[in-house]
Design a protein that fits this description.
Jelly Rolls; mainly beta; four-stranded mixed beta sheet; rod-shaped; 6 domains; 576 residues
Length: 576
């Protein structure tokens, strides 16, 4: 137990000491990134120093026949950009990056043709037959099989030409010549030519049957095709350069060992809200591209397409950059968002909120508030349909696009209907009047002859001033009803009896029954009002005479008298 406690204490002391020492060190400001290569390949640079938090790039290329298998870092994380460059970022420590190259495995392909072509006699140009090769790869070794008939193989020549005519190899050139002027005189051929053939040079062959046989070496080495691309149209030429014998090319085959183009896997990944098509990993030859359809679900749109392959998006089609390593295409999607904005069309009022963001298929609610004296006329949307919820609330549901909601307002108006009752006059205007809420309207009452305004009633309320009737502020549909009463009129005739003054007005006056009329008496100098009499009756106050209520035609007669004053009796202003 004591030993265990001692060990624990020792560990704690070590940790504390190490921690304190580590904490006392100043932060490192520069780090070294070193490339370590396994296999046959090229990496540049082999080492680089970067500041803390910095980044670096490395170019990695495989030697022919080799391919880059993996790239790993011990304290950093290299990422491929799709073009041969590997990048590390945010470097915080020394790092070793290991680039592992592996040798490519050879592949074999054999393609044959059975033309059964006649070989024309004594025709150095000969005949051609072609083989179409679709396989892509770098040629390492070529073997050619020939099968046919000919009565004198010493006349024959065979040539093989590469598809892009970069090389032509003479396979057979008149076996037995020049050792013999006419070459091998035996018949037929059935052989496979290769550079490592075990049956000697083909031009030295002259077997009994067939004359050309087994696995000889060609006239010229087939490694002339090494390093060239395998794909394309290969051409075999067969010629007969001497007279007297004929033959036929029945079959020939091209067998090639090649380095296949490196095949990399492009892995598609799709986030929520859509799909990537095809959705399974795709095999791509080195340097080729891969294309994917990026298809959002309803209510979503493409947010971005990223991943280690690189590439570009055109519409909904994404095409990678040339692929030189396994890589990914990662599609992400975002929910569609729409802007719902509001506006006032006709009239006066307010719509809120002015703007709101709605997800695909969502709903937007707006409040429509008329100004005083106005009411809602219509609430409409250009790409959505707002419906009334009550209390001036409107909701548009299932929104699929940006939408503008517009509210129209109309004035609150009421109808004031004027009428007359019982005849005896008219009212103007005499048609119903449309009045905004809280406004008033004035009507002019026009009594007929011998009529006067009796009263104005109705539901509008109001006041009469002279013959003008003004309603109260109108808050509902209402009516103004004017009635008139018949009024009998009489003539009051003013007159002056004798001399000494005048009466105003001096002409007969028309007076309605029950009314009174007032006259002014105007004495001349030296006169004074004596009395006023006549049939109208009335009262004299000072110089003013007011009749009694008139109920028939009557007259008012004013009389004046001389002022009785001795001083002015002789009309001279002197004392006697």
């Amino acid at each position: 137990m004591k030993q265990l406690a001692s060990a624990v204490i020792g560990i704690l002391v070590f940790i504390l000491a190490h921690g304190l020492a580590h904490g006392s060190e100043s932060p490192q400001s520069e780090f070294t990134i070193t490339a370590v290569v396994q296999g046959q390949g090229f990496v540049d640079p082999t080492s680089i120093k970067v500041p803390a938090g910095g980044s670096a790039e490395f170019l990695a290329l495989a030697e022919p026949g080799w391919q880059l298998e993996s790239v790993t870092g011990n304290t950093c994380h290299p990422a491929f950009d799709g073009t041969g460059l590997w990048t590390v970022t945010d470097v915080q420590a020394d790092c070793q990056i290991q680039f592992e190259f592996v040798e490519q495995a050879l592949a074999d392909v054999e393609i044959c043709s059975e033309p059964n072509l006649l070989i024309p006699d004594e025709d150095p140009a000969g005949i051609d037959d072609s083989l179409e090769v679709d396989t892509v790869g770098e040629i390492v070794e070529v073997r050619v099989a020939l099968l046919g008939e000919h009565t004198w193989v010493g006349d024959l020549g065979f040539k093989l030409t590469h598809p892009d005519q970069a090389a032509t190899v003479e396979l057979v050139d008149r076996p037995g010549v020049p050792a013999s002027s006419f070459g091998c005189s035996n018949a037929d051929f059935d052989l496979v030519l290769s550079d490592d053939g075990v049956d000697g040079p083909v031009n030295d062959q002259c077997g009994p049957s067939p004359a050309l046989f087994g696995n000889p070496t060609p006239e010229q080495p087939l490694d002339g095709f090494a390093g060239l691309d395998l794909s394309g149209t290969w051409t075999l030429n067969v010629s007969d350069s001497a007279f007297g014998d004929i033959g036929r090319l029945q079959r020939w085959c091209l067998a090639v060992s090649y380095l296949p183009e490196p095949v990399y896997v492009v892995t598609p990944l799709a986030g929520t809200g859509g799909a990537i098509i095809p959705d399974s990993p795709q095999s791509v030859l080195s340097g080729q591209t891969a294309s994917f359809e990026i298809r959002p679900d309803p209510g979503f749109e493409i947010d971005e397409v990223s991943g280690s392959c690189g590439g570009s998006l055109e519409g909904e089609e994404y095409t990678t950059e040339a692929v030189f390593a396994d890589c990914t295409v990662e599609a992400s999607f975002s929910m569609l968002l729409y802007q719902v904005t509001t506006a006032v069309g006709a009239g006066q009022g307010n719509v809120s909120p002015a703007e709101q963001t709605i997800t695909h298929g969502g709903a937007a609610t707006v409040t429509v508030s008329p100004d005083s004296g106005w009411r809602i006329d219509d609430v409409r949307g250009d790409t959505c349909t707002p419906l009334a919820l009550g209390d001036n609330q409107f909701e548009a549901v299932n929104i699929m696009a940006d939408c503008l909601i517009t509210a129209d307002f109309e004035r609150i108006t009421f109808e004031v209907t004027p009428t007359t009752q019982g005849g005896g006059g008219s009212i103007a205007p005499d048609k119903p009047q449309t009045v905004a809420e809280g406004e008033t309207v004035t009507f002019t009452l026009q009594p007929s002859e011998n009529f006067e305004v009796d009263e104005v009633t109705g539901s509008c309320g109001g006041s009469l001033s002279g013959n003008d009737y003004t309603t109260d502020p109108v808050l509902a549909d209402c009516s103004v009803v004017a009635s008139f009463r018949f009024v009998e009129t009489f003539t009051v005739t003013p007159a002056v009896s004798g001399n000494g003054g005048s009466i105003e007005p001096a002409t007969p006056q028309t007076v309605s029954t029950g009314q009174t009329i007032t006259f002014e008496l105007l004495p001349e100098p030296g006169y004074q009002v004596d009395q006023v009499d006549g049939s109208c009756g009335g009262d004299l106050v000072g110089m003013t005479f007011t009749t009694a209520a008139v109920s028939s035609n009557c007259d008012v007669v004013a009389r004046f008298q001389v002022i009785d004053d001795p001083l002015f009796l002789d009309r001279f202003e002197t004392a006697p």
